[in-house]
Inverse folding.
């Protein structure tokens, strides 16, 4: 193999990783890179051979305790050459002693675990549905929700306090969010819809129960009649599984949620009805 070097990507190169992710069928959002980059600009890596990028990877440090990795893609012409493993190990070192999470390929779980670096915790699943319907009463646009309250609610459903990411995510062009509040203004759930290369994705979708999740989901998909939408659910959430099955949504693919620790990562999976992104957690 020709001489390879691994380096931090430049911001203008990140769209290549998003393009490759779309080609792999991951269907990233059109504006995802704009929210991913500011979280940790030093967390995006590429492998180069003769000045050409042949692989990408990201390990984004949210805080001093938690990281999430994604965009592990190698140019098909350079697969099975060792590029991917070298790049992955280099990128993972960026996490330091933080717990690192990734959504990996289910069939590769034995290999991941044999490496001693990543351990399976549960599976996620992507489902496809079709937009339409009416917006239920009782929902509030996220722009009208106090951000400090939203951040606290989001932090209760994610392993890190992701203030910078969340501000971008709810305010980005092409993103639309709704929440359900109780009479005292307490958040009972919230969700975000974003435009993707194909259709739309709903994520996150966090809710205290299935009924609230369905209300928010109905509100989000009412604005995209006839368009496909995708919802990524954690399989251990039985209510989320029943939700997609009752709606006759079609399974697209599954992922393996892995972490660099065997210990349980504290998350209220029963309240996670939609993962934010497979790329950044």
């Amino acid at each position: 193999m020709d001489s390879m070097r691994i380096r931090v990507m430049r911001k203008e190169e990140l769209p290549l990783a998003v393009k490759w992710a779309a080609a792999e069928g991951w269907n990233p959002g059109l504006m995802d890179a704009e929210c991913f980059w500011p979280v940790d600009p030093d967390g995006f890596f590429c492998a180069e051979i003769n000045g050409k990028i042949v692989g990408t990877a990201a390990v984004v440090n949210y805080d001093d305790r938690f990281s999430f990795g994604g965009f592990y893609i190698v140019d098909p012409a350079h697969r099975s050459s060792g590029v991917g493993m070298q790049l992955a190990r280099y990128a993972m070192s960026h996490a330091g002693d933080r717990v690192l999470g990734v959504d990996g390929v289910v069939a590769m779980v034995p290999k991941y675990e044999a490496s001693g670096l990543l351990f399976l915790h549960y599976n996620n699943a992507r489902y496809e549905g079709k937009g339409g319907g009416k917006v239920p009463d009782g929902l509030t646009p996220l722009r009208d929700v106090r951000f400090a309250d939203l951040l606290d609610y989001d932090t209760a459903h994610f392993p890190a306090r992701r203030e910078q990411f969340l501000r971008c995510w709810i305010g980005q062009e092409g993103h639309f969010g709704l929440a359900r509040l109780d009479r005292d203004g307490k958040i009972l759930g919230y969700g975000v819809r974003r435009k993707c290369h194909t259709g739309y994705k709903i994520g996150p979708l966090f809710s205290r129960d299935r009924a609230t999740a369905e209300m928010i989901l109905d509100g989000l998909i009412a604005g995209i009649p006839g368009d496909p939408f995708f919802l990524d659910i954690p399989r251990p959430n039985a209510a989320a599984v029943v939700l997609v099955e009752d709606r006759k949504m079609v399974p697209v693919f599954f992922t393996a949620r892995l972490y660099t620790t065997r210990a349980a990562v504290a998350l209220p999976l029963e309240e996670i009805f939609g993962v934010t992104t497979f790329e950044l957690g």
